[in-house]
Each structure stands twice: as structure tokens, then as C-alpha cells.
Design goal:
Elements: E1 25-28, E2 42-46, H1 50-62, E3 65-70, E4 76-79, H2 84-91, H3 96-120, H4 122-137, E5 160-163, H5 166-172, E6 176-180, E7 183-186, E8 190-193, E9 198-200, E10 203-206, E11 221-222, E12 225-226, E13 234-235, E14 239-240, H6 257-278, E15 283-285, H7 308-312, H8 332-338, E16 349-351, H9 356-361
Parallel strand pairs: 1-10, 2-3, 2-10, 3-6, 4-5
Antiparallel strand pairs: 7-8, 8-9, 11-12, 13-14, 15-16
Helix pairs in contact: 2-3, 3-4
Amino acid sequence: MCQGYYDHEKPHIPDWPGMDSYKGRFIHAQLWDPSIDYSGKRILVIGSGATAATVIPAFAEKAAHVTMLQRSPTYFYCSENKNELADRLREIGIDEPTIHRVVRAQIMHDGGRLSGRALKEPDVVFEELKTLVRKFTGVEDFSFEPHFTPKYRVWQQRLAFCPEGDIFKAAVAGKLTVMTDTLETFTEKGVRTSSGEEIEADIIVAATGFNMLMMGGIPFYVDGKEVDWHETVNYRGMMFTGVPNMVWVMGYFRASWTLRVDMLGDFVCNLLNHMDKKGAKRVDVALRAEDRAMQLLDWIEADNFNPGYLMRGIKLLPKRGDKPEWRHNQDYWTERHEIPATDLDGEEFVYDCVDAKQRQTEPV
């Protein structure tokens, strides 16, 4: 199952008061119509995450003005939209397969280091992120309070990438106004915030995130009973108790999604080959005797990763245990060793045959 976990047809739109009274154009970013002409328009973007960071610089190029209304700020990582190591290796004539291998190793090393430092020294990492903003805007005294100082720890939600610091450049150029407040109501001409500020806009774009959707909304039945995913326990973030012959391809929040896709592809092939050798047609994962008293918890801890879409949909996701093999660890740097080394004859794997030879010798 490779459908991801977003509902791509129905985005998350809060039930804001007064929406029917607004006379302008309202649209969620997920449902954006490329034919909309926003040249010379006043645009209000509600939200501040990766989606807002993506659309705002594009709007700012042609809009009369863009306002970003956020409940709380987001961390942004500013960088050139290129890889210096890759460019240098090409310059000196290194072949592309080698460049890919080396640059991949560099990115994985840097990503693992940043992820670890975000836990151990988040304040230092934030200061480094600020330095990058100052570098790309050229503004040494750029003010981060209150609109660019998040309430959560770095990497507790996704770190939004800003190529060339584009969203900050738009703010410095006067093309973007950032407001940190909550929305009280829509009005005929725009919205009114809880502090009483009126924001007029010709187009309002909701960048308010996704709704969760397990398995692409496909209903699953086992022995005639529909599967409730929240009643299952997740094995290594990929298999489910009570659901045979299924692997869920679920990537990482803090590393490239495809890293885990690669590993799980190998795992599935190994598992299928192992089943062929055993003569098995069915495999389940089940709690071992040592796991039966294990505490079952929601899929991930809020102090680990807590974006709004995940917290809203946490009851749609399977449960985790308090042991590393009964959860999605969100740690590529550990799992790249653990998952390939999985013992497919471990007690947690239950096959539909113990062993073909054994069965033949058992008394009828």
C-alpha cells in the first residue's frame, strides 16, 4: 500500500464564522486552479507552513500585496537551490553514478546530524537558521519577534525549505506582511482577526493543511469484518496485527520519503522469497508472549512530531507499542541497519504453515 496518508480530494478547511459573507475568491491551496489570474490582486494566505512558504513567493511576484495570517510561526531553512558538492564533482569530470552515491551520502550525513542537534541543542540550531535568513536577505538586524519565532522545538514539525530565502526577501521588499493572530470571522471584504484588525483581500488562499486518510480510503475486510486501523498495532511502521499479507509503505518526516520506500521494497522481496521457501501463502504479525503486557499508545508522541494534520488524525492511525519494533521510529539512520537485519523467523511473524515437512509427519 503506497497511497501515503493525505486525503488529496478534501483538504482541511476550518469552519470559520462568516465564510458565506465574503465576496471575493476563496480557495484552498490544495485545490488551486492554475487559471486564476492574481496579477495586481490583494492576496491573503491563511497558514504558515511549507505550503504557505511555497505559494507566497510566487504570489508576491505579481500580486499587489500578500498578507500571511498565521496562528503561530514556522521554522524556515534558507539555502541556495543547488548542491555545491554535486556541481563541483561535475566540474571535475566525475561520472553521474558516483556523484549520486557521494551526494546521497552527504545529504544523509547532514540530515542525520541536523536531526540529532535539533533534539540536543535546538536553540543553537535556531540561531543558525536565523543567520541564514540574514545572509539571504542582507538584513543584519532582521526582526524575528514575534512573527518568526515558533513555540515548538526545531524539527518537532517539518522544517520548511526556502530556496534563496525567498519568503523573507518578499517581506523585506514590502511585498509581504506577516500577521500572527487568530481569525475571528470572515467579512464581506476579507477577514477580521481576534485583535480586531481588518484584512481586506481580493483572494483568500487557505494553506491550512491536509486531512489524514489511511490506505487511500480503501475499505479492508478480514473474515468479513472491516478493519479499524486504530485497533491494530503497527510492526516497524509497515505491518499490522490482524491484517495478513499487507505492507504499508510509510516514509519519514525528517528524512527523504524514498529512503524508507527503498528499504521496504527490499523487505517485501525478502519476505516473499522467505514465504516461497517455507511454502507459505499467508503471513501475519502478532504480539509475542513478551509483548502481551506492552503499553499501547497513539502512533507517535506529540513531543516527537506534532503538526496539526497529524494531531487531528491520530485516531485514524494504528497504535504503537513501547518497544522499538512495534512503532515507526522515524529514524532512518538506525533503521537502515535494523530493517535489513529483520529475523523473518522471529516469533512476531506467523505463517500459515509451520513447515511443510513437519506437517507431513504429524499424525492425522
